[in-house]
User: Fold this.
Amino acid sequence: MVAIVSIGEALVEVMRTERDCPLDRPGGLMGPFPSGAPAIFASAAARLGATVGFAGTIGDDAFGNCVQTRLLYDGIDCSALRRVRERVTGVAFVAYAFSGKRSFLFTLPQSAAALVDTGQLPEGYLDGVRYLHVMGSALSLSDSLRETLYQAAERVHAQGGAISLDPNLRAELMPLERIRAVCAPILRLASIVMPSGLELTTLTGAATPAEGAAALLASGVRLIALKQGEAGSTLYTAEGALAVAPYRVTEIDPTGAGDCYDAALLVGLDEGWPLEVAGRFANAAGALATTRMGPMEGTFARPQVLDFMASQGRPL
Assistant:
């Protein structure tokens, strides 16, 4: 039995070796690195000490081996990870600009990652799950994956577990207005939402993130964790807004930082930490994630995160 479950896309990522080298011209590439927002989240939560399950689909190929080997190494329950021969493992190609902007080219809708359905969840897989974490990218990928997430959320919610949502908007996979619609059934059940500022206003139609947070709280969400990058984060509850200061690092690769933040926040909440403490832990995990090249390479074990926090004079 696991405490935290993530369901969604697993893939590999291949990145440009130089900045300002777009994907429409020849240039150097590095990888593959195991990736996929729900899988990165699962890796981070497991490395931070939680018992974690991941459900997704990969191809019966070398890239699938890359993903599965890493998830098993991190101690994740992969009994709901399926391998198929009819499609290859999904790939994301990423280019970086000196401005910090990233551009993506996904093969996901045509890949194994889209072939997730409820039948691959073993009997009793969701029993006792305390947190089901849902990503907007997974909701955008295919009808079967989206329906699997809807059914799993209903099941976990009905048995008293919490649903958390990271909107993780990916315009490359689905128009933003459509993503807002497919997130609605999860929002109806969610007690925790972890967006960026743009995601929060897009999701709610509000003019500002603060107004968006107020709208979600009024709808029944208990906690909105607004991720603000180098500015830290702000935690909104019915009691008010709590600003959590950032940790300072030299950024190398921001991919996966938000997923690591999500994981650390849920681990802290699951262990009963005060909200401010869980928020500091999440900020630290998210900051550390940017210091290594490769999305899942930025997931750190708990002792490493705690040492980093202490080194900056803000221990747990």
